[in-house]
Design goal:
Elements (H helix, E strand, L loop, with lengths): L1 E5 L2 E4 L4 E8 L6 E8 L6 E6 L6 E3 L7 E6 L4 E6 L8 E9 L12 E2 L3 E6 L1
Parallel strand pairs: 2-11
Antiparallel strand pairs: 1-3, 3-8, 4-5, 4-9, 5-6, 7-8, 9-10, 9-11
Amino acid sequence: VQLQASGGGLVQAGGSLRLSCAASGRTVTSVGMGWFRQAPGKEREFVAAISASGDATYYADTVKGRFTISRDNAKNTVYLQMNSLKPEDTAVYYCAARRGGWGSRFIDEYDYWGQGTQVTVSS
């Protein structure tokens, strides 16, 4: 599975962005998907995950209520809608896929990673 993340950019605090993760090479209808982020000097951290069917979603406490993960299996694409952005959301955002139908909070459980897209939130 090859993953291509896009949609990052520069936005003011309180603004919104929608990230996309397009998958190719294999259908993603049977894989769990997740978004992670890594700020400069920090460890990569979990943001959100979604099951293969889209029925189950998981969020980090820091983004719950502001971010929404969704997927369109017909388009082999997963989205991350980010609202009410804060400067502390600034990071490189990565999408990832894991064999098996469930999403996960744990980096080590993912098998495929995209290249990352930069999100910068100015105060």
